[in-house]
Amino acid sequence: MSRWIKKELFEKHLEEREKEKSQQQPKMIRSEKVWPSPKPGTTEEPETYQVRFLPDPKGKLMKKYYYHLWRSGDKWINVLCPKTHDFSNWCPICSTVSALYNGSEEDKKIARDMKRKERFVANIYIVDDPRDKNAKDESSKMGGKVRLYEFPSKVAEKLEQENDPKEGLQEAAWDAGIDGHDFIIKIKLTKPDGNKNQFPEYASSIFSRKPSSIGTDGEIEKILNSTYDIEEHISLLEKDDKWMKDIITAEGLFKLVEREWNKRHNSPSVQVNEGEDDVPFEVTEKKTESFSDEDILKELDNMKV
What is the pLDDT of residues 106-137, one digit of tens each? Predict the structure, then answer.
């Protein structure tokens, strides 16, 4: 036996490590709590999905958030924009994007990839997902499950219309019981634009006319108990200032926001004259690829959070 370490001490260490491992929460694949992005049909025929919107465990119905998502090398960078909490908040990535738009055509291409994006998120009960008919097994089917639905502004506008006190469904749009209404998502593809790009189109989406319950009282209670905390979900995208600085530096773009960064963080490393305008640096060494909405959505569905 060694004179420098007791066997009992090491055994205690092993016990503590095993305890730590058992207490660690495994990372969750997004598709385990986020509904895989619904796919559009054709320009003529929509793909149709049917869901019921639900409140989260704290009674929150939906939340808008801003984020930045872009491909860097073989990795995707996905981070919550600070403007989610207050639009007056300073975001170093937004400032980087703004400076890039004042640069070369290559800079503008990078800016378009990194620019701020908007999404909404809410809990849903999936009544019908047409993709289930091609599912490999029962566990991969979505029908009858609760998931978070991350949706674009076009869907949010449909929900906002139901807030009208005279014509809207109001709380019935979120009711799981007999007074509630399903939301029927109909997604077509737009006709190709000048660059041959096509986009999902939600204009035909509508709330069902007839109310219906998604289950018995006992089933509804179980369903509502399985919803996800919206704020907690969004917070998983949040990064601290050091992370933000490191990632911008790794992209070779920190010089674009260095002066403003030092002003806001009171850094003594750079002398800044008050009132002096920040002059954007032209970036030429950074190269990016263009990715379609489909590429981004596919990557999002496979992300761990």
Answer: 999 999 999 999 999 999 999 999 999 998 89
> Which positions ≥6 away from 56 have C-beta within 8 Å?
122, 123, 227, 228, 229, 230
Separation CA 292–CA 279 (nearest Å): 32
Give residue 146's Cα distance to chain centre. Answer: 17
The distance from CA 41 to its chain's CA centroid, rounded to whole angstroms, is 23
Which among 285, 235, 231 is positioned nearest to 256, based on CA atoms? 285
What CATH number has the domain bearing residue 214? 3.90.198.10
Q: d(Cα 180, Cα 53) in Å, to the nearest integer? A: 9
| Alpha-helix residue ranges (DSSP H) falling in the chain | 7-23, 92-100, 105-114, 153-161, 217-224, 230-235, 241-250, 258-264, 293-302
Cβ contact 35:125 at 8 Å:
no
Partners of 78 in the beta sheet?
Answer: 69
Residue 112, number of CB atoms within 10 A of its CB? 14
Residues 69, 113: contact at Cβ < 8 Å?
Answer: no
Number of domains in the chain: 1
pLDDT exceeds 50 at position 304: no
216 φ, ψ (degrees, to nearest 5): -75, 170
Q: Angle at which helices 241-250 and 92-100 pack, to 10 degrees?
A: 30
Q: What is the pLDDT of residue 16?
A: 72
**Whole-angstrom distance, CA of residue 233 vs CA of residue 121:** 9
For the ranges 98-107, 156-165, 205-214, 259-268, the lowest mean pLDDT is seen at 259-268
What is the residue whose two structure tokens read 């970036």?
Answer: 283
CA distances, 134 to each of 36, 124, 163 (Å): 14, 21, 36
Q: Is residue 281 part of a domain?
A: yes
Instruction: Dump strand ranges (E) for 170-234.
Output: 183-189, 200-201, 206-207
- Whether 14 is covered by a domain: the verdict is no
Partner residues linked to 34 by β-bridges: 148
